Amino acid sequence: xxxxxxxxxxxKRWSPATVVGPVSLEIARxxxxxxxxxxxxxxxxxLRLLAGFETPxxxxxxxxxxxxxxxxxARRRCGMVFQHYALFPHLDVGENVAFGLAQIDRHGRDRxxxxxxxxxxxxxxxxxxxxxxxxGQQQRVALARALAPEPRVLLLDEPLSNLDPSLRExxxxxxxxxxxxxxxxxVFVTHEQExxxxxxxxxxxxxxxxxxxxxxxxxxxxRPASLFVATFVGRANVLQGPxxxxxxxxxxxxLVIRPEQLRFTDGGLPGLVRERRYTGAAAxxxxxxxxxxxxxxxxxxxxARVGDRVYVEALRVLAFREGHA
Amino acid sequence: xxxxxxxxxxxxxxxxxxxxxxxxxxxxxxSLTLLLAWLVLYPxxxxxxxxxxxxxxxxxxxxxxxxxxxWASVWVSLASVVLxxxxxxxxxxxxxxxxxxxxxxxxxxxxxxxxxxxxxxxxAFLFLYGESGFVxxxxxxxxxxxxxxxxxxxxxxxxxxxxxSMYVYFYLFTxxxxxKLDASLFEAAQALGAGRWxxxxxxxxxxxxxxxxxxxxxxxxxxxxxxxxxxVFGGGFRVMTTQIVATKLNGELPLAMVETxxxxxxxxxxxxxxxxxxxxxxxxxxxxxxxxxxxxIRRPAVRGLATAAGWLFATLLLLPHxxxxxxxxxxxxxxxxxxVPPVLSLVNYQRxxxxxxxxxxxxxxxWMAAVSTLAALLLxxxAGALVGRRGPGGRxxxxxxxxxxxxxxxxxxxxxxGTVFAIALAATFSVxxxxxLRWILVGTVLLLPLAYVVRNLPVTGRAxxxxxxxxxxxxxxxxxxLGAGRWxxxxxxxxxxxxxxxxAGAxxxxxxxxxxxVTSIVLYTxxxxxxxxxxxxxxxxxxxxxxxxxxxxxxxxxxxxxGLGARR
Lengths: 325, 568
Known about the structure:
The structure holds two protein chains of two kinds. Chain A is an alpha+beta fold. Chain A folds into two domains: about 5-230, Rossmann fold, CATH 3.40.50; about 235-320, CATH 2.40.50.140. Helix content of chain A is about 25%, strand content about 35%. Chain A has nine helices and 18 strands. Chain A has helices at about 45-50, 95-100, 105-120, 135-145, 165-180, 195-200, 215-220, 225-230, 240-245, and strands at about 5-15, 20-25, 30-35, 60-65, 65, 80, 155, 185-190, 200-205, 210-215, 235-240, 255, 260-265, 270-280, 285-290, 295-300, 310-315, 320. In chain A, a hairpin with a 4-residue loop joins strand 15 (about 285-290) and strand 16. Chain A starts with a strand and ends with a strand. In chain A, about 45% of the residues are buried. By secondary structure, chain B is mostly helical. In chain B, strands 1-2 form a two-stranded parallel sheet. In chain B, helix 21 (about 485-515) packs antiparallel against helix 24. The longest helix of chain B is centred in the N-terminal third of the chain and has 34 residues, at about 65-95. Classes of the chains: A alpha+beta, B mainly alpha. The interface of A and B includes residues 9 and 58 of A.
């Protein structure tokens, strides 16, 4: 594979204490990459560096083998969907979508606007004003506007964070369908793991300005490269000391165990069920060990009751060396 | 697929050498800062230098008249604050809390004095309450007196005009503050056992403090710089603004400089003291809730009384405007001793528009107001574009360099009375010395519009900078990501979005320049004499009708322009 978008040692320094990068990342043509991380991890900065709104202090950014590091945003041909959409309130939907088509004659422009609106299922909405639309419709107009000039890369900044939770899942599926239909190389930023896993072909996890790991959702969950990735992605029991050793760890190791990789048995680490949270198909149990550690175990809803004395064993553990966060 | 993690790059970027793009970023800011400094700060420094020169300072200190004028300026300004608050705050409470027939109409009528340019307001008062005004004539007629019952002169007269024209600040600020209050705050206080007066004194007023302090500051500064009222009604009672102009007319220029600097110092001290009382705007921090519901007055008798009182008050407020309109219809020499003018006609307006010499002042005022507003708007836009933008994603980064100096320079003319700037500009541009950036502009038509630009800068600057601050930086970024360059973004996105702020700032600036008297009287020439000066000359030769007609035109144009500016 040759990279269509590549960041090579890109670094941005906000202050001596806050530095993003160096980040290196290669993205294939047509691939959807999610940048996932807690707030302040630098994921938005990486996106803005790609868009050209920030200039890196070091490193190189290339799109389709063209060095765009010093190119202003207007000449990068990156479509962007902003967190709050940034639809121009003084223009109607049609004018918003046509904004990036200034170079094209009127007829061609109208055709492209209609095409872009059809893509997001908003045909006939041309003369509406942004404030007359629902949040989901605004999001789709923002997407149509970004795609209309046929950019080389699509950038999305927390594209679903402004929507009702009930709307998010459906919009996510539609978003992925549109992107795949257009076949455009896409980078998007999110702090929600479910969103990243659902939308991204690959996910890059950022922490404190560093790209910790890039991989498929399975990779990140099953084979996390660091303790941070292991704990940030998915639910995890983080254990040290005697409890860790009782579950198969050795001296100086931190164990990360997914709740579904723990189970109740007849013999193993003893503990007391403190809480039980019922979710329908399964239940989450909080088990307190004799050492005072708490373990989260997923099991059958009928496996135990609060106050029961149980024994726990681990099916699979992820081991990290102590002190390597 | 490969993704690599690399160790930290080796060479740290060189912060010592300024890269090309940083020079390009700093140069426009530096240029704007220098231009503003030349326009706003430099004349003040020249005035200070001139004042320190020679023995004028000694003269100032030794003359008791100077100290009396300075003290008069201070106490008249403070008394104006008290009077304006005494009228404006209760009115605001009334309109915001009680409901009675005609509340909405009256509520906007109450803001009317704001539409009257200061000098026009003063002559309207003269026609109404002056020695030979309607009220005095009526009293004279009713009681059969053989001379006017009073003379509208001295500190009392000045305070009357100030109270009339400046309570609007307290009224508007208090209403805005009250509108931000959350009903649950009052309910919480009541639930904790506070009675009506306790709620007012322990909750309402403390929360209104920033609004009240803001209004007090505005009234104090306006009163301190007020020139029209003391000029027309002062008589032997001098405040600093009239004292300065009198000294200048006497030809004692160095002394006028010292007086100017003294007045500027009082303004700065007043500003500093009043700023400290402002405190934090707790209401904004609390966020907006639901405003308390207005209480309808139930008892019919009380309701009728309140309504009648309201309309009576509104009529009282409208009287100056009506008087002006009436006097403008009185032909020259047709009204002598009668209580009401016997003849009314449009002859004054016909002469005004028919004779080119009469029309000149109107044309002069219009072009100078238009040009100075445009210039002040362009300077404000430059300031906004260079330092007004919010940093992306909540980061303050971009505003950075020169933001403080540029914002301070834009605001400075507001902090100093108009007379101060007029005198300072006259002193600065009466010398030809291109090396020190001074040219002879005194006696040319350019100096007055230049002074208007300086005076208008805070008005347009405040509006445009506020507009920029409210602008989501994502709009400009969205435009850039869609291929729009810097100018296209300005034209297609930023300017349309700033339109309300631009219109508000421009209309206010235009109206201020159009009605200006303070700076005009110091800097006008025959060729650019503005309306206010023409009104004054008409009064001198007793052409009251023509003066009033000019006043009416000024009032109508101001109202129309302000109305246009307030349109969303």
